[in-house]
UniProtKB/TrEMBL annotation:
Coiled coil: none annotated. The keyword Transmembrane applies. This is DUF454 family protein. Keywords: Membrane, Transmembrane, Transmembrane helix. It comes from Duganella guangzhouensis. The chain crosses the membrane at residues 7-24, 95-115. The keyword Cytoplasm does not apply. It comes from the Bacteria. The lineage of its organism: Bacteria, Pseudomonadati, Pseudomonadota, Betaproteobacteria, Burkholderiales.
Length: 125
């Protein structure tokens, strides 16, 4: 099971890093998946992910229950709905459009209602 979790974690990190550069590929869900896999299978890889200078702080804050800054939530929603709108515009299948809207709505509700909004102090900016 550790081999499977480590493999999924490594693939999730790769997809998450690609998501930084590719506009339609999300970053955060893949990094959260990688963190969850490594937490169960490899403490060394989990520590590496949490101490990474690029995205480690965001993972630590999320995992510690501090949440996501309001600015981060706003940007996530803007980019998510922007890319979903493009996908809706590009498809002719009604069921695909409805599925995309349903997924986007569920993610929006989850992000706004269930993920805590972290208070950012002036010294953190």
């Amino acid at each position: 099971m550790k081999i499977i979790l480590n493999t999924v974690g490594i693939l999730a990190v790769i997809l998450g890093v690609l998501g930084i550069f590719l506009p339609l590929l999300p970053t955060t869900p893949f990094l959260l998946l990688a963190s969850a896999c490594f937490a169960r299978a490899s403490p060394r890889m989990h520590n590496w992910l949490r101490t990474n200078p690029v995205f480690g702080k965001y993972l630590r804050d999320y995992e510690n229950g501090a949440g996501i800054p309001l600015r981060g939530k706003v940007w996530v929603l803007i980019f998510m709905w922007g890319s979903m709108s493009y996908s809706i515009w590009r498809t002719d299948l009604l069921w695909v459009r409805l599925l995309i809207v349903c997924i986007g709505t569920c993610v929006t509700i989850y992000l706004t209602r269930f993920v805590p909004t972290m208070r950012v102090q002036k010294s953190d900016r």
